[in-house]
Specification:
259 residues
Length: 259
C-alpha cells in the first residue's frame, strides 16, 4: 500500500489536449522503482496489446510503438527464439509464413489476443480490454456498412453467437448499422468525422478516455488505479501526437498552395 500511496501522490491529473506532466517513459521508470515485481508485471501485461500491434508494424516495415514491451531487436529475438510472446502468436506465424499473409489475416491474431487476454483479466483491466475490443468491433461494423463490405468476412474470426457479434450480423442487410445503446455516441462520432480519419481517431481516443474516467470509482491508491493512469497517459500522448500530425499536414498543405 505504501508504494501505491507514494506513486499515487506523484501522478498529476490528466486531460486530453494538454501534454502530461509525467510522460510514459518517466511513468514507466517510476513504476519500476516503486511497484513490486508482481505489480510491475501487471503493467507489462497491460502493454501486451501494443506488442500485438507492433507485430503488424514490424511486418509492414514501420517504426514500433514505444509503449510496447519490446523494441525491434527484442521483438525479432522473441520471434526467432519463440519466447516472451504468447503461444498463439507463434501458431499464427507458422500458419501464415509470409508477411503478406500475416498482414492480410492480422484480425485473426488480434481476435486471439482479446479472447486470451479478456479470459485472464479481472477488475478494471477486464473492463478496459472489453471496451477496446467492442469499440473496435463497432467501428468495423460502421466501416463495412459505409464501404459496402461483407460483414461476415470482416468478422470471420469472431464467434457469431456472441451477443455483440450476433447484433452486428443481424443488421447485415440494414441500410445503416445501429450499435447497442451504450455505444450510441460512437455513431455520432463516426458520422461527424468519417471524412477526416485523423480527427476520427482523436475523437475515439477522447471517447475511451472519458469512459475510463467514468469507471474510476477505483480506490485512489491501488494497482487498478495505476493501470488506469498508464492507459490514460498513453491516450493523452497519442492524442497530442495526432494533433501535431494534423498541424504538420495543414502547414504542408499551405506550403504546397500556389502563392
Amino acid at each position: 500500500m505504501a508504494n501505491y500511496y507514494f506513486l499515487g501522490t506523484l501522478l498529476p491529473d490528466l486531460r486530453i489536449g494538454e501534454p502530461p506532466e509525467v510522460g510514459f517513459s518517466e511513468l514507466d521508470q517510476l513504476m519500476k522503482d516503486n511497484l513490486t515485481t508482481a505489480d510491475y508485471e501487471k503493467t507489462r501485461t497491460l502493454r501486451n496489446l501494443y506488442d500485438i500491434s507492433n507485430l503488424r508494424s514490424y511486418w509492414k516495415g514501420e517504426p514500433l510503438d514505444p509503449t510496447g514491451n519490446f523494441n525491434q531487436v527484442e521483438l525479432e529475438e522473441a520471434l526467432i527464439t519463440r519466447t516472451m510472446l504468447p503461444s498463439y502468436v507463434f501458431n499464427f506465424v507458422d500458419k501464415y509464413p509470409t508477411n503478406e499473409e500475416r498482414l492480410s489475416h492480422y484480425p485473426e491474431l488480434l481476435s486471439n489476443f482479446y479472447k486470451d487476454a479478456i479470459s485472464k483479466a479481472t477488475g478494471f483491466f477486464k473492463y478496459y480490454l472489453t471496451l477496446e475490443r467492442e469499440v473496435r468491433l463497432i467501428m468495423v461494423a460502421f466501416r463495412a456498412k459505409k464501404l459496402g463490405r461483407d460483414i461476415y468476412k470482416e468478422l470471420q474470426y469472431e464467434d457469431p453467437e456472441e451477443d455483440l457479434i450476433a447484433q452486428i450480423l443481424a443488421q447485415k442487410d440494414a441500410a445503416e448499422y445501429e450499435p447497442p445503446e451504450k455505444y450510441e455516441d460512437i455513431k455520432v462520432l463516426f458520422q461527424q468525422y468519417y471524412d477526416d480519419p485523423l480527427e476520427l481517431q482523436k475523437a475515439l481516443i477522447d471517447y475511451r478516455f472519458n469512459k475510463i474516467d467514468e469507471k474510476l470509482n477505483i480506490e485512489l491508491f491501488s494497482i487498478d488505479r495505476i493501470l488506469a493512469y498508464v492507459i490514460e497517459v498513453i491516450m493523452v500522448e497519442r492524442w497530442m501526437h495526432m494533433d501535431k500530425q494534423k498541424g504538420l499536414k495543414i502547414v504542408d498543405s499551405m506550403l504546397k498552395e500556389p502563392s
